[in-house]
Each structure stands twice: as C-alpha cells, then as structure tokens.
Amino acid sequence: MSVRWTYAFLDRPAAVAGRAGDFWTAATGTGLSEPSGDEGEFSVLAAEGADGCVGLQRIRAGAGGAHLDFSVDDIAEFAEEALRLGAETVAEREGLRVLRSPTGQLFCAVVWQGESVRPPVVHGSRLDQVCLDVPPSAFETEVAFWGRLLADWDSAPGSLPGFHVVKPPAGLPVRILLQRVAEERPVSAHPDLACADIEVVRARHEGLGAVFVAAFDHWTVMRDPTGGVYCLTGRDPETGGLPRGPG
Description:
The chain is of the alpha+beta class. The protein has helices at residues 17-28, 75-84, 139-149, 198-207; strands at 3-13, 31-32, 42-46, 54-59, 65-72, 88-93, 96-100, 106-111, 125-134, 154-157, 163-167, 175-180, 188-195, 211-215, 219-223, 229-233. It has an eight-stranded mixed beta sheet, with helices on one face. An eight-stranded mixed beta sheet has the order 10-11-12-9-13-16-15-14, covered by helices on one side. The chain starts with a strand and ends in a 14-residue tail after the last strand. The mean pLDDT is 95.
C-alpha cells in the first residue's frame, strides 16, 4: 500500500469560505478550481503547470481547521489498514472514505487522479505541512498510528521536545507534524508554511488581511481573514527541512 499524492485541506465555514479562498489563493499564487462534491463543497488551489496539493472545504458546522487527504490506488485497502490500526469510518461514498484517527483527527482517502507535479515556492514560502495539535494523553497513540499507517514515510522525533515529524517520500507535497500541546483538549489541525524569511512572509500576509497572533523562536502563529489559525515556520521551502547552519 502506498500513498500517491497528498492534500492539505483547509476547512472553513461556508459563510466565510469565499474570503478564505481569496486569501489563500493570493498567499500561495494559485487559482481556485471549479467546486466538486455532492454540494460543491470542495475546491483545489492549483498553480499553472502544477497539480494542486492544497484544498478548501466548505463545512456546515464548527469553526473549521484542517485535515489531510491521501490519494491512493485502492481506497478499500488503505482504509482497511487504518481501521486495523484503530481508526474508524465516518462516511463513505464513491471515490471517498472519511476516517477518524484513534484520538479523533479526521482524514480522507481518495482515488489518485495522476497528480505528480508539485506546486512551486511562491514569494519565499510554500504550504507543505499539516500540524496535528495533540493533547498529552493522546500523543504517543497518535504518533504510533501515523507511523504505522504510513510505513514507508520517515517517522522521527522533531528538533524540539514535543514534536514528531512524519515525512513523505520524495515527490509527495505535504508532510505531517505532530505537536504535543500543554492542555487536554480534542485533537485539531492547522496548516504550516515553510518560509525562507518568516518576517517577509508575515508582512506580505498581513497585507493580504492576515493577523499576527504570536511569535516563537522558529515559528509565528497567524490568523487568516476568516479566523483560521496557521503557522509560518523557519524551514527551507524547497525541501521542507530545517535550514542548514553555517559550514
């Protein structure tokens, strides 16, 4: 079983999805595809000459967040392995299986449509990561689940305590970061951008309507114009890894 492509989906309430689309297409240098799905709830952010790897889902209820889509050859096989590892099925229809991880994070299995060309770096940044914010009681369970489900990915502790990276094979555009949060609360997710210069990207995003929330040593927390949280991280936007030190 192998994953052929990955998507980071931004989940936004239907009432503000249009504003979210305007911001994220401008921030990523993309255009928004025609809606798909039974209720036109899905759109993909695609750059000319490349395949989309970021999507926008219009949701009926809740504040929104983010989730991962895994494009595979055999949805049933992928879902069967996820269920064996402790996931559960939330919904199923042709070409789509919605699943929930053992501690509550939604994700989807979809049919691979031949995607293979990664979008380029735009204005020194690239949206290339979904961060799962996991409470302490669930962290080890969630780390084990993703490492086993994505067995051909590189699953390893991050550079800081409380972080764990699940990095895909070369060519796949979205990776996973698990972050152990301090408080006990439901698992959630948000997108991360790799930035050559966080301050430059922050200024550009603020010009597009985003709002600064907080700054840490290696990342800055932002809110998009609809209130959705995301992070600007100090990683190489070409490789997704930490920048090399001098020498």
